[in-house]
Write a structure and sequence with these properties.
Chain lengths: ~525, ~450
């Protein structure tokens, strides 16, 4: 099953390197199924609409306080067939999980089950208002409550805040709870420690909450330098933020020791749960001394990434931080009814740090995630982690003979395998390998992250790939890496076969064109 | 398990390649205390599609569906008709299952859509530049305050009393931790907002004044004077819009001098969804402020062959490049909701949006006139778009909304729910009317409201 394909194609049939001169140019610029599409504002018209509404009656009475809009807005419309075609054509210029392997490290691009989509669209979930009287939305409150309970079960944590809108918002939730807990005991602390391998959101979050951020170095084996961290601990340290499994793809085996040391100086432990997929059902972060951890439902629990969101980032909290959880939250009364605790419930709400968002969180993601949990169950979720880790180790061991794997000797990796550009021919880079993979039909891995490895390539296969698909990827990845090792200059111009060649990002930033002009 | 393609034979072959005897050998770095031997307790075992769907349908059936009853709820989330083709487009796997467009050569679909979205939002708001979305209106509101403090290097924000109270709570929660000062107020129950009072609160320390338009009571008023007053003191005007459909009928915030305009885009394409995911809109009137904006921005450029293409740009503002010096910590935003908004807006176009807005306003005027005739009911607003405030006699409005729900009518949002414990507001009810409201619905609300009020008088 290692053959790149079974279609009869042979390498010697490859097009010329520029890919352009094998047939006559077309009048339209299209190439069969590869279709160019203008901007909406170049094809839409101000007087065209794709909905049927009553025409505006100029003489109709209004109560608009003289603020009726006289100027044109500048919008354009298309009829329904034109709209569907425009966006369908655009969609075909995108890569998605449905199309192929998407090994984007730390992003967990797993299959998005369609039952989740179907369930989220049930009118009983999709067509209910966040401020409806609570007696009219008991099922919705039950979904939030049930999902929260199961997140607590899976993480071994006593409490959960459901309202954060995405991973970074969840980080903010955890860090604000930590700040509130320190404030409550009159303990002003200024510093948050963040390992240098952390996601950029970690230091940005801590800074957003007005903490000073200090880096903690990594050891040569790719883990947090425990000695350096312990040496920095003191009464000014509010928290450490550690990703586990970390962004080098390794389990932080000294996590418990770190947590104990942080607790000993009165600090808290924030765990970035972006990589929870590697350990779901296998390891409970609560057993490791975590005080707060966000869970990206759009990673571990299969809700779609949608080209950049929406996500959802519930945060599990320890006993110490639970009282500071943000409003609102869902509780169940003795009679079995569910209710929201909001600003008014002074006794029940406790010393909450406040409110992070207008309503109750990402309900549409909750229904999808709960559907996914029910589908997999306790046994399936454990298998998810095992297969994700197995796939990543298989890729690591299938590549390490030709591609620098800086932490290959540090033990098995978890859900992702990390490589570096150390042996590439001078002038060829990780970016070139990424673009070469695009020509081979793959979405590239995460590149240049984490920062602790030069020219980093972080490969996360997830559990929803077959062995055949992974073997095919390995074949292609090896071929592209060989080109980088041997100094194949043509790789510098890749991709050749994507809807666009390399785009000039410098020009885009120098003279920003952020809206259609005309 | 239907989502897991590996077979046991595959697993064995892969373990052999790795040189591990069992999969547990791969978890050797996990300390023993944290390892779980069997499946975790407290969750059910795996289940097939049919069983899962049955379970979830039972939960859905416990909710009163907005589309199945006379429905008048708003207060920051509005029920509009979403054309069928919107959902068809957003379910295309190439959009649904794509990631943030970090590899632009194979993400031109998402990127071009984002440039269209940014253009639509900027024009709707009367601004120069909009970003590629934030989480929702309330978080966008805080981001606007935070941006204003960066631009002006001041640390005080003045909030209008008629700003959505949850938005004000979000701002106050964040400001508590950043050390910014927030001057807020309760809404005064008056037919028109007290803009003079608001302007009097702006001082030389003020970074921005935040005004909602239409406001939480549904009122609309010209904000040009507020913009002038803010600018005279060196402050920015932040305008919050929670109902973008309104801007098909009334002047844009940018036209009135707003510096930052933020909004909740849920009305177009996204649906109610019990509060999320929603769509944060964020725009600035003056392009010189672009580098202080939060979130992703899509820009136009060319590829190596000179073809037009699109990329994420100015990312030196962002967390993945600037880390602790970023303008915001936001990473994942609301990409798919932005697509839904853009497809809906494309279907509407200039003409459709104006017609939609006019239809909303026509029905809202009808409803206000009819409800004003109910004994014990007064309409507070002199001006409104599609939402207005009723002052009710008898029981507090919160009890009346629960009573109406029992009668199968979702009759509005009580200010008692939004401002618990504020006696002066407990008899106020917010009523929203959209194109989905029928004249029959209005009649039913009038009748049931009358009955509910009478019961206590």
């Amino acid at each position: 099953m290692n053959a790149p394909n079974q279609s009869g194609w042979k390498p010697e049939m490859t097009l010329a390197a520029d890919g352009m001169h094998n047939g006559p140019a077309t009048t339209t610029g299209n190439r069969a199924l590869m279709l160019e599409e203008p901007l909406l504002f170049e094809i839409g018209r101000a007087d065209v609409t794709g909905v049927d509404l009553p025409p505006v009656e100029a003489a109709a009475p209004t109560r608009l306080a003289g603020l009726a809009r006289s100027e044109t807005i500048g919008l354009v419309g298309l009829t329904e067939p034109e709209t569907v075609r425009h966006y369908t054509r655009l969609s075909r210029q995108n890569y998605g999980i449905d199309l192929g392997f998407f090994p984007l490290g730390s992003c967990t691009m797993k299959h998005n089950p369609r039952l989740n989509e179907k369930v989220a669209r049930l009118p009983g979930f999709a067509d209910i208002h966040p401020l409806a009287p609570q007696n009219a939305v008991q099922g919705a409150l039950e979904v939030i409550h049930q999902l929260g309970q199961w997140l607590c079960t899976l993480t071994g944590m006593p409490a959960v805040a459901m309202s954060p809108k995405a991973g970074a918002h969840g980080e903010l939730c955890g860090i604000l709870a930590i700040r509130a807990a320190h404030e409550a005991r009159g303990d002003a602390r200024e510093v948050v420690l963040v390992p240098e391998s952390a996601h950029g959101t970690n230091p940005a979050t801590a800074a957003f909450a007005n903490y000073r951020v200090e880096d903690i170095p990594a050891t040569p084996e790719g883990r947090v330098d425990v000695a350096a961290l312990k040496a920095r601990l003191g009464p000014d340290v509010a928290a450490v933020m550690i990703t586990n499994p970390n962004t080098c793809g390794l389990f932080e085996k000294d996590f418990r020791e770190i947590a104990d040391a942080v607790h000993a100086v009165g600090g808290y432990v924030y765990c970035d749960g972006a990589n929870f997929n590697a350990i779901v059902g296998k390891v409970r972060p609560g057993d490791l001394g975590v005080d707060a951890m966000h869970i990206n439902l759009h990673k571990t629990f299969s809700t779609p990434h949608g080209g950049g969101g929406p996500g959802s980032g519930p945060v599990v909290l320890s006993e110490a931080l639970a009282p500071y959880a943000p409003l609102p939250f869902v509780r169940q009364d003795a009679g079995g009814s569910y209710y929201l605790v909001e600003e008014e419930d002074r006794e029940e709400r406790g010393p909450t740090f406040g409110r992070m968002t207008a309503f109750h969180g990402q309900m549409g993601m909750f229904t999808r995630a709960l559907t996914y949990m029910l589908s997999h169950g306790a046994d399936g979720l454990k298998q998810v982690a095992e297969d994700a880790v197995l796939n990543a180790n298989y890729i690591l061991r299938s590549m390490e003979d030709i591609l620098h794997a800086p932490f290959a000797a540090s033990g098995p990796c978890m859900h992702e395998a990390l490589f570096g550009d150390k042996d590439f021919t001078e002038g060829l880079t990780t970016l070139d390998v990424a673009k070469g993979l695009i020509d081979e039909g793959y979405h590239p891995m995460t590149v240049y992250f984490p920062l602790v490895v030069h020219g980093a390539m972080l490969v996360e296969p997830t559990e929803t790939e077959s062995k055949a698909a992974i073997d095919q990827f390995i074949t292609a990845f090896r071929a592209v890496v060989e080109r980088a090792l041997s100094g194949d200059e043509a790789l510098k111009q890749a991709p050749y076969y994507a809807p666009r060649r390399r785009l000039d990002e410098t020009a885009a930033a120098r003279k920003p064109k952020l809206a259609f002009e005309g | 398990m239907r989502y897991l393609p590996l077979t046991d034979n595959d697993r064995q072959a892969m373990l052999a390649k790795i040189g591990a005897a069992t999969v547990d050998d791969l978890f050797v770095d996990v300390p023993e205390v944290a390892r779980l031997d069997g499946p975790i307790h407290g969750l059910p075992m795996h289940a097939g599609e049919m069983a899962v769907e049955r379970h979830m349908k039972k939960l859905a059936a416990k909710n009163l569906v907005a589309g199945e009853v006379p429905f008048f709820l708003g207060a920051g989330a509005y029920r509009h008709h979403v054309p069928a083709s919107v959902d068809t487009i957003i379910q295309r796997g190439e959009f649904l299952t794509a990631y943030t467009p970090y590899q632009p050569e194979i993400a031109q679909g998402t990127l071009q859509m984002l440039l269209e979205f940014q253009t639509q939002v900027a024009r709707l708001f009367g601004c120069a530049v909009a970003n590629a979305s934030l989480y929702d209106g309330s978080t966008a509101c805080w981001e606007a305050v935070a941006m204003a403090t960066r631009v002006t290097r001041r640390k005080r924000a003045v909030l209008s009393g008629a700003l959505h109270p949850h938005y004000a709570q979000v701002v106050k929660t964040m400001a508590h931790f950043t050390g910014d000062t927030i001057a807020d107020a309760l809404p005064a129950i008056t037919a028109e907002p007290d803009l003079d009072g608001l302007m009097a609160r702006i001082d030389k320390e003020t970074a921005c004044v935040v005004v909602q338009y239409p406001d939480i009571l549904g009122r609309i008023s010209d904000l040009a004077a507020v913009a002038e007053a803010a600018h005279a003191k060196g402050a920015l005007l932040v305008v919050v819009n929670t109902e973008p459909v309104a801007l098909g009928a009334i002047k844009s915030p940018g036209e009135m001098g707003a510096d930052i305009v933020v909004g909740e885009g849920q009305s177009l394409g996204v649906g109610l969804q019990f509060g999320g995911p929603y769509l944060g809109l964020f725009a600035v009137r003056d392009p010189k402020h672009v580098r202080q904006m939060p979130g992703r921005l899509c820009g136009e450029t060319t590829d190596a062959e000179g073809k037009r293409g699109f990329v994420l740009t100015l990312s030196t503002r962002e967390q993945h490049i600037r880390r602790e010096k970023a303008t915001s910590n936001i990473c994942t935003n609301s990409g798919l909701c932005a697509l839904a908004f853009t497809v809906h807006m494309t279907l509407l176009g200039e003409r459709g949006l104006r017609e939609l807005a006019a239809e909303n306003h026509r029905l809202a005027c009808l409803a206000a006139d009819r409800l004003a005739k109910v004994p014990g009911v007064e309409v507070l607003n002199t001006a409104f778009f599609n939402e207005f405030t009723l002052m009710l006699g008898g029981k507090p409005a919160r009890e009346i909304t629960r009573d109406l729900a029992d009668r199968g009518v979702l009759g509005g949002v009580s200010l008692g729910r939004l401002y618990p414990g504020v006696d002066a507001l407990e008899h106020a009810l917010l009523v929203a009317v959209t194109e989905t409201t029928t004249e029959d619905d209005i009649e039913v609300l009038a009748r049931e409201l009358e009955a509910s009020i009478k019961e206590t008088v």
